[in-house]
């Protein structure tokens, strides 16, 4: 059983009201910052999912031409997009296989 002296020593003295108010303001700022970051992260999740679902296909080596459902994308821009995605999502697009699209 602990005696009263030990119990009193383990209790921290109350913070001055000025310090307590400063901590409350800091806490409120941090709560707002976390809420903003969570909102940004949620928006980024949708972008990441859509980018991962992109069907990038380099048809040049296959000497075929995709139909009109495909849009041309600049190779450098596509590489930069995948690099940016890898930087924010820890996804490794460089090891994602790009398969030829079956031609009808």
SSE topology sketch:
Elements (H helix, E strand, L loop, with lengths): L3 H7 L6 H37 L21 H15 L15
Keywords: Coiled coil
Amount of beta strand? under 5%
Low-confidence stretches: none
Gyration radius, rounded: 28 Å
Basic shape: rod-shaped
Structural class: mainly alpha
Count the E strands. 0
Instruction: Please give the count of helices.
Output: 3
Largest sheet: none
Our measurement of the CA-to-CA distance between the termini, rounded to an integer number of angstroms, reads 84 Å
Sequence of secondary-structure elements? HHH
Helix content: 55-70%
- How many structurally independent domains? 1
Assembly status: single chain
Mean pLDDT: 77
Keywords: Coiled coil
Coiled coil: 20-54
Structure overview:
The protein has about 100 residues and is an all-alpha fold. It has one domain. The protein is rod-shaped and about 80 Å long. The relative contact order is 0.10. The model has no long low-confidence stretch (mean pLDDT about 75). Keywords: Coiled coil.
Question: Keywords, please?
Answer:
0% strand; 104 residues; mainly alpha
Short description:
The chain is an all-alpha fold and 104 residues long. The protein has three helices and no strands.
């Amino acid at each position: 059983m602990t005696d009263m002296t030990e119990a009193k020593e383990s209790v921290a003295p109350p913070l001055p009201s000025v310090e307590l108010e400063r901590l409350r303001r800091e806490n409120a700022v941090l709560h707002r910052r976390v809420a903003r970051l969570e909102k940004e992260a949620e928006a980024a999740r949708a972008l990441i999912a859509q980018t991962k679902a992109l069907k990038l296909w380099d048809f040049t080596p296959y000497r075929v031409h995709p139909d009109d459902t495909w849009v041309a994308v600049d190779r450098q821009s596509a590489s930069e997009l995948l690099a940016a995605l890898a930087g924010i999502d820890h996804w490794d697009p460089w090891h994602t296989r790009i398969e030829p699209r079956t031609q009808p």
